[in-house]
């Protein structure tokens, strides 16, 4: 052994046995503590996933409560044109963050006087899940361009610019959509976005997050299967 190697060995300190035992016990205790913590973390993660999956398990296809406030018949928002056959449900968003269902219903009705544009929807869902019916389901609304004549439109309020609906709005949307599908013998595949008709970014959140849109349709289908 070289002189330098012997010097290195001589300079190395050997820990007392009791210190080594304490360190060994410390590592053992750490493992004992960490294993239950990991199990608890995995359990909480699993529970969170299950709760998220079943968050809308209680929503069915029964008729939801709604406030019927039909628009006045006029050329700008309620033409009074009968729909011969309903072939789909179209979901929209208001693109007016923070506005209420009442605000949007009143805007549609006011078009008879302002003549600002032609626009309306069969239903508007508010930030707290309230539903206002503006046009009968057998009448055409001015909402979905080329699909006005064979679809029912649902306009949804949203709190901010990203367009994501509140939980209350979302729940009402699932139930209302499922009820309309049951009423007109439609499937969740016949529920579409305004985007699917024209390419317009509407409803924004469901266009930008395809997974969220797919999940919504699954929620509608699950509600339909509870009939």
TrEMBL record:
It catalyses: Hydrolyzes the link between N-acetylmuramoyl residues and L-amino acid residues in certain cell-wall glycopeptides. Coiled coil: none annotated. The keyword Cell wall biogenesis/degradation applies. GO terms for molecular function: N-acetylmuramoyl-L-alanine amidase activity. Residues 14-25 have a biased composition (Basic residues). Its EC number is 3.5.1.28. SMART domains: Ami_2. This is N-acetylmuramoyl-L-alanine amidase. The gene is cwlA.
């Amino acid at each position: 052994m070289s002189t330098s190697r012997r010097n290195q060995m001589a300079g190395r300190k050997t820990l007392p046995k009791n210190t080594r035992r304490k360190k060994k016990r410390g590592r053992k205790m750490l493992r004992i503590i960490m294993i239950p913590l990991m199990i608890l973390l995995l359990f909480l993660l699993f529970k969170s996933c299950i709760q998220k999956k079943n968050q809308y398990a209680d929503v069915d296809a029964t008729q939801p409560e709604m406030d019927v406030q039909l628009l006045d018949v006029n050329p700008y928002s309620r033409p009074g044109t009968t729909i011969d056959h309903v072939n789909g449900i179209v979901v929209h968003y208001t693109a007016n963050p923070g506005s209420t269902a009442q605000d949007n219903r009143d805007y549609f009705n006011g078009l008879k006087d302002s003549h600002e544009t032609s626009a309306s929807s069969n239903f508007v869902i508010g930030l707290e899940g309230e539903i206002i019916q503006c046009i009968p389901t057998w009448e055409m609304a001015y909402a979905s361009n080329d699909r006005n004549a064979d679809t029912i439109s649902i306009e949804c309020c949203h709190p901010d610019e990203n367009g994501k609906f509140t939980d209350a709005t979302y729940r009402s949307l699932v139930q209302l959509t499922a009820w309309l599908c049951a009423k007109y013998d439609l499937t969740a595949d016949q529920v579409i976005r305004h985007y699917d008709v024209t390419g317009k970014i509407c409803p924004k959140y469901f266009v930008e997050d395809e997974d969220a849109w797919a999940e919504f349709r699954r929620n509608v289908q699950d509600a339909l299967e509870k009939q």
